[in-house]
Amino acid sequence: MKRATSFRIRFAALVLAAFSALSLTVERSQAATTLKIGSAQVSIASIPVVVAIQQKLFEAEGINAEIVDFDGGGPAVQALAGGGIDLCICAGDHAMRLASRGLGGAVLVALLDKHPYSLLAPSGSSASDLAGLRGKAVGITSPGSLTDNTLRFMIRKLGLNPDNDYEIIAAGTGASMRAAIERGSVMAGMFTTPDVQAYMATGKYKFVADFRDLDYMALDLIAVGSWLKSNDATAHAVARAIVKAEKLIQSDPKVVEAAVHERFRTLSPELVTAVAHDAAERSLSHDGRAQEAGFKTALEMLRVADPSVKDLSYSDVVAVRYLP
Q1: Can you give the pLDDT at residue 148?
Q2: Whole-model pTM over 0.90
């Protein structure tokens, strides 16, 4: 009788423990915050976000994050401003534009400290620099994007007019841009990692201009002011997860390679290793803090391309208060 009673007690305790564990799991699942993170394109800037997903850093913060890819920064920012996505892996330029318009655009976490783009042309092109493309069609990803602002700024530095002396055409990203070049719609186009490495490796392309060593508040995780105001705790949690991912990227090459492979599945193992090493060493932020030198360059470039943008301060745009 005592043995039967003891068994029933133990059985009841096991059932209670299982029920408690199940209830806790359901509660955590229900409590998880779902975030849609837009990406201006499939670029290396998204790697810290991918690492945070793969290594369950978001999950540890009670966040279920999903990346939504767009074909250029323009449409991605439209979705951000319209509430279709919560955050955007977009050029810092867009945060500046939003802030200038009173929408409280802010860089929540820096992702890249260097400009991510290069201008490539077919290897047989007679153009050896941007000036050599005068009078020709040149491809950008989308109007108002980082590629658009950069090209216009660099053309003006040559003393030329981007609208009169060049034909600037929105040709999309990656394969779309390459197709535009190959059918002759544009004579050169703007590419980012890993397309730069992949296309240069074919021997069919050459650099017309390489902006990748330029200090620049390039692609960052940006938000609008209304979202930050309504999601203060979530913003802090996102920043913590991304900064942990950025530190992990600097210490574990395999983590970066896994993220690069996830994001760029068609790359060969050799290119995955090369792109991962180049990104970690050359361009990805180490601590999530936008560099002031890069901010100044980005603001100067943007105000030349779009004089309606106000003269903003670093603190107007970079939300360092959320960083751990």
Answers
A1: 92
A2: no
Tokens linked to 274: 């090369």
72: left (phi over 0), alpha (psi -120 to 50) or beta: left
Give the burial string for 85-109 (b: 16+ CB within 10 Å, else e): bbbbbbbbbbbbbbbbeeebbbbbb
DSSP 8-class letter at 290: P
Cα 287 to Cα 250: distance, rounded to the nearest angstrom? 10
Helix-, strand-, coil-residue percentages of the chain, each rounded to 5: 50, 20, 30
Sign of CA dihedral 276, 280, 284, 287: positive
Q: Which two tokens stand for residue 126?
A: 């007679």
Domains belonging to the chain, first-starting first, are 34-114+216-322 (3.40.190.10), 117-210 (3.40.190.10)
Q: What is the C-alpha to C-alpha distance for residues 154 and 131, in angstroms, rounded to an integer?
A: 10
- 131: helix, strand or coil: helix
Q: How far apart are CA 25 and CA 31, in angstroms?
A: 10
pLDDT in tens, 58-106: 999 999 999 999 887 888 999 999 999 999 999 898 999 999 998 889 9
